[in-house]
Write a structure and sequence with these properties.
4 helices, 7-stranded mixed β-sheet, alpha/beta, nuclease, globular, hydrolase activity, acting on ester bonds, ribosome biogenesis
Length: 172
Amino acid sequence: MRRGRRLGIDWGDARIGVAVSDPDGLLASPLDFVPAGDGELDRILELVGEYEPLELVVGLPRSLNGTEGPAAVKVRGKAADLAAALHRSADSDTAGRDTPGIRLVDERLSTVTASRRLRAGGKSAKAQRRLIDSEAAREILDRALDAERASGTPPGQLLSGSEPASESDVDS
């Protein structure tokens, strides 16, 4: 298991859920959501600067049969935009930090699981609306961490063009 924080991202049309792991990559915790739209990339870049993650784990929405539809195409585009913004930010970063890679991981049923967890925790439907996106991001990140612990290899697919300077791994 590689050491380092990860940020989990659940990209939605209205809100972007965000979660963070501990430095050892053992536990994931939900953060607040980022409003989708103008300024979303800037806010995510701020979180990257604050947490200095090894990588970003972005949930890729697939249908139950595993195919990718319009939502997956949209998330792939958003992830590519984020990779470009990270590289622009790194070019102007005088601290010499590595640019984190972006991994796309299957997010099937993450929101359903997150909703069940919130409901079991006694959260009202109104409270769930504010928390669900970041709780889904936590679920996505938890699954990715579990997969890496089980297989010994990084989870999902490394987004082409988002390779950190210190990583030579290829799409998996």
